[in-house]
Amino acid sequence: MKLTTMTQVTLDGVMQGNGAASDDRRNGFERGGWARGAGDDETRTFITQTYQRADAFLFGRRTYELFAGSWGSIDQMRAHPIGVALNEAPKYVASTTLTAPRWEDTTVLRGDLAAAISELKAKPEGELQVHGSGALTRWLLENDLVDEMTLIVIPVIVGRARGCSRRPDRILRSTWSSRGSTRRACRSRSTGRPGARSMRRPEVPDRRTTLS
Fold it and tell me: What is the topology classification, in CATH, of domain 2-21+53-187?
């Protein structure tokens, strides 16, 4: 199973708080919502079709809770094609603290996360998608577990915040939207077999916080 990520980023590499000002204010970040209104019909169609081709989804804890409370709970969002894709596919969440996931068809990955993800990737076909989940995406890249990245680059500069910590190996495809954003499909840089780097989960200031 191929592991792919889709991430919205600014020109200066920020991925934190793209959806709404209140989504992610960690470390005093107050510039959220920078991606709102930046998409055109073509980009929205591309994002929807990406969700629809997924065979399974992998989330960090924060993004999982956000999606479960929206795509998994609100009737109007559940009926949207993205909501249908999310609700019909198996969902995996990387967390050491989540004990009772509220979204149906959810499996919590505990213990050796690299081994669990490698086992999913060992399936002969399909696509395991990661959306958002910044800390998880960075960890996956650091451990060479990402096969392909899709970056939706929004033409704004936000300033210091959480971003991508690693550059891709090469750009496979690049497309401009009518509103100035770009979509880039990138091959992840690898230095050896998948998961060859440190298997440690990323360190976080609060031990109760898990991969988002």
Answer: Dihydrofolate Reductase, subunit A (3.40.430)
| Digit-coded pLDDT (tens) for 21-50 | 555 555 544 545 555 665 678 888 989 999
> Half-sphere exposure of residue 8, counting CA atoms within 13 Å on the CB side?
22
pTM: 0.72
- Two structure tokens written together for 99: 């004990």
- The pLDDT tens digits of the residues spanning 44-79 come to 898 999 999 999 999 999 899 999 999 999 999 999
The residue among 67, 128, 66, 62 whose CA lies nearest residue 94 is: 62
